[in-house]
Input
Amino acid sequence: MLKTLINIGMLNDQTNYVMLAVELVLFILIFAVVAFFIYKKTKRRKTLVISAVYLLAGIVACILQLELVKFGLLFLGVLVSTNCLVVTNNDLKYSSRNYSPVVKTPKSTLTDEDAKEKLIDTLVAATAYLSSRKIGAIITIEKTQNLNTYIEKGVKLDAEVTVELLKTIFFPNTALHDGAVIIRGNRIMCAGTFYTPSDKPDINSELGSRHRAAIGISEDSDAFTVIVSEESGRVSTTLGGTITQGLSEEALRLSLTNHIIIQ
Output
């Protein structure tokens, strides 16, 4: 009888150890899934810390046989890990539906010197017209970094750059005259888009919202922007967070030649 009880006790101990091992493995698996997917989404180290705390709490609950705590942690872990798997699966489906083999974002590029010269002539002529009549304007030329975020915010055009079109866009009191134009290659991709103004403390207080916005986009990208002042008609350019003011037609042409790229 005593021997039987001892055997039963040993069997119960073995069963308990097996159950403990299973629970620990389950917590580790949940920890691995949750930590991997959350970190993949957020790229924040604190998510790994939270996951590690979860694993530690699970191990302690298993060792101390805190059944209610174990149940709660397992339920939470399964819920979170299942949600991570579902979200990831949906992301994969979305990516596969929207996959495009085209790597380059720009739809239009300048491919030869003749096209570049034509674009420069158009921009210089349009700027001279706007400047002579003190019509405010912001004309941004995309370089190597795409400006899709700003293009999406504006009114999409995808039209050839012409003097007439630029005159029309920036004509006072029209719907688009306050915003900026973005040029990609030899196409106006959008009009009426707005940039986040620069908050640099050393900007001349005389500069208005157009100039601050132009400096802002030059801080966010490698774009080259031409600005025409509504107050004075002066022509300025921005690049790399720096503004150059009071450009003549010759100086503007030289700047455009240096910063418009052929791809």
Remarks:
- The first helix runs from residue 2 to 42.
- The chain is about 55% helix and 15% strand.
